[in-house]
Design goal:
Elements lengths: L1 E10 L2 E11 L4 E5 L6 H8 L7 E6 L2 E2 L4 H5 L2 E4 L11 H12 L4 H14 L15 H15 L3 E5 L7 H16 L3 E6 L2 H7 L2 E6 L2 E6 L1 H6 L5 E7 L9 H4 L4 E7 L2 E6 L2 H14 L4 E8 L2 H9 L5
Parallel strand pairs: 3-8, 3-9, 6-7, 7-8
Antiparallel strand pairs: 1-2, 1-4, 4-5, 9-10, 11-13, 11-14, 12-13
Helix pairs in contact: 3-4, 3-5, 4-5
Length: 310
């Protein structure tokens, strides 16, 4: 069990994390979803004993991160957002050194585990290449491989598939799932909607340093009234739409506008579409495009935070 109890972190006058409370169960894989600057990395670094919480308490497998930092470090592994290793080392040596520092594996066991991971990630032929010469995607794979090879009790991945192409993203996601199946508790901090949806049993949405909401994908989507979303793009430069123009219809449950995009959460979207368009045009708005879809995780995020990912 990992527990965050009213955790806060302040850097001078900046509150990076504010009153964050969350419990993560043993063997769970949870997505920490939020835009850049939401406080996800700061939260994970506090859990990993890199930063000290300004307020509140964090426990990992019963160990307080302030009172028992060495015990926490012995059971946790973090794949950082920006790869962190000596660029002079080649990929094989980075992983071998990481396992030497974090596990009790002997030389032969380390060799076998490093070889298996590098082959699985398609990096075996490049094992002797110095990491500073590697592409961004290859460096990111090496960073992820540190934790995939370590197999810690608590595995943290911060933006694990940044810089990766689609096949590599799918491969890394599959390896993270297998890590959880082997018994690790996994936290994936991400700003990618599809990553949170595909990997997580639960998703915790974070914004401006705060926990906004948490639940399974089904639970989060069910919090929005109306099973459909009508996405309407109107001409730029006009006045902001008053919600009452559309909420006058009983089938419309919520309206959210970001710039010239209007999201209408409703039921019976196909039947309501002509009425929505008529209501908008009668107010002088030019409808440029319209799209009907089911509620998605992005809609949950937008509703709870009032913003969308860049």
């Amino acid at each position: 069990m990992i527990t965050f109890d009213n955790v806060g972190k302040r850097f001078g006058t900046l509150e990076a994390v504010k009153n964050f409370s969350l419990e993560v169960g043993d063997g769970e894989i949870i997505g920490l979803l939020g835009p850049n600057g939401a406080g996800k990395t700061t939260l994970m670094l506090m859990m990993g004993t890199v930063y000290r919480p300004t307020s509140g308490k964090i426990t990992v497998q019963g160990y307080d991160v302030l009172e028992k930092p060495n015990s926490v470090r012995s059971i946790i592994g973090i794949a950082f957002q920006d790869p962190r290793f000596d660029g002079i080392l080649n990929g094989y040596d980075v992983l071998d050194w990481h396992l030497k520092m974090t596990t009790s594996l002997d030389k032969d066991e380390r060799k076998q585990r490093v070889e298996n991971i590098l082959k699985a990630l398609g990096l075996w032929e490049a094992r002797g290449k110095r990491t500073w010469l590697m592409s961004g995607g290859m460096k990111k794979k090496i960073e992820d491989a540190k934790i995939l090879a370590q197999r810690p009790k608590v595995a943290v991945f911060d933006e694990p598939t940044a810089f990766l192409d689609v096949p590599s993203r799918l491969l890394v996601w599959d390896m993270i799932r297998k890590l959880r199946e082997e018994g690790s508790t996994v936290i994936v901090a991400t700003n990618m909607m599809d990553e949170a949806e595909r990997l997580s049993e639960r998703v915790a949405i974070m914004n401006l340093g705060k926990l906004v909401t948490v639940g399974t994908l089904g639970q989060l989507k069910d919090t929005l009234k109306g099973g459909e979303v009508l996405e309407v793009t109107i001409g730029k430069g006009g006045p902001r739409l008053e919600d009452e123009v559309l909420t006058q219809f009983k089938e419309v449950h919520h309206v959210n506008q970001v710039d010239n995009k209007i999201l209408v959460y409703l039921n019976f979207g196909r039947l309501m579409l002509p009425k929505i368009v008529e209501a908008l045009t009668s107010q002088g708005y030019k409808v440029e495009s319209i799209h009907l879809k089911e509620v998605a995780l992005e809609d949950v995020f937008l509703t709870y935070t009032g913003q969308q990912f860049e």
